[in-house]
Amino acid sequence: MWEFCISTNKLNVARFIYQNLKQESAEFKIVLTCYEQFDTFYIMLACPIEEKTRFAFVLERCIIKVVCNFYKEEFLNQNLHLPMHEKMSLTAFKKALINFDKETDFYIISKNLELKNTLHLDSFYNFKLSALRNKWNELILLANDNSDFLVGDEAFYDLLKFLIDNLEICENEISVFEKENGYSIKLDENKDIKCESLTNEGLISTLIELSPKKINLYCDKNDATVSFLSKIFEKRINISYNKSMEKIENFSK
C-alpha cells in the first residue's frame, strides 16, 4: 500500500480535500481518514501500489485546486483594496481574479509539488510558492494602483468584462433556471445538474468559475441579477423570459 498524509491548519481546506478524495475512494480502493490534533487537520490515506500513479494524478489536481481557490482567495482578501461597489460586483471581480490565468497557476504549483509521503499544505504554500504569490501580487498591485480609476462603474465593469473574457472556457454550454429557492445549473450533453439552490452571488461565482461559451438563462423577469449577468457576459448569454415552472422542471430533469 502507498500511504500519504496531508496536513493543514485550515478547516475549510481540510474539509474540501477530504470530501473530494472520499468521492474517489471506491474507484481507487483507497482507505481514507481524517483527524484534528493541536489545531492541525490531518487527512491520511492509503491506496494499492498498482493504483498509485493514477491516484497521484487525482491527488495532485485536488491540491492544485485548493491552492488556486482557497489560498488565492485568502491572498486577495488580505491584499486587494478596491473602491466600494455593491456586493454582487465585488464578488464577481474577486472570482474573476481567482480564475484569471489559472493555467499558469496550475503549472507553477505542479512544478513545485512533490508527492512523497507527507505534505503540510501551509508550509508548501509559504515556502515553495513564492513565485506564485509574486505573480498574484502583480495583478493585485495593478488593481490597487488604479483603484481611483475603478471608482466609476463604467471603468470597473470594463475591467471586469476584460477579466471574464480572458478566462479559459471550461464548458461549452450550460442552462440556468430560476426557481423559488434560487438558481440551478444544468450542464450540456445531458450531464447531471451541477448546482442547485444558488443565491445571486453563488450563481455569479459559479458561472465565472465554469466560464461557459454559452449560457441559456430561463427566468421570470429582468431583475438586478439578470441585468448584471447580461452586462458581464454580453453575447455569451441568451435570456428567455416567462417560462412556466412546469416546462423548466421537465427540461431540467
Structure, explained:
This protein is 53% helix and 23% strand. The mean pLDDT is 89. The protein is an alpha/beta fold. The strands form two sheets. The protein has a five-stranded mixed beta sheet with strand order 7-6-5-8-9, sandwiched between helices. It has a four-stranded mixed beta sheet with strand order 2-3-1-4. Strand 2 and strand 3 form a beta hairpin. The relative contact order is 0.11. It has eleven helices and nine strands.
Radius of gyration: 20 Å
Number of helices: 11
- Report the structural category: alpha/beta
Biggest sheet strand order reads 7-6-5-8-9
By DSSP, the count of extended strands is 9
Q: Beta-sheet strand percentage?
A: 15-25%
Low-confidence stretches at least 5 residues in length (pLDDT < 50)? none
Q: Per the principal axes of the C-alpha atoms, what is the gross shape?
A: globular
The H-and-E topology, N to C, reads as EHHEEHHHEHHHEEEHEHEH
Overall mean pLDDT: 89
Helix content: 40-55%
Taking the sheet with the most strands, its summary is: 5 strands, mixed
Whole-Å distance between the termini?
A: 41 Å
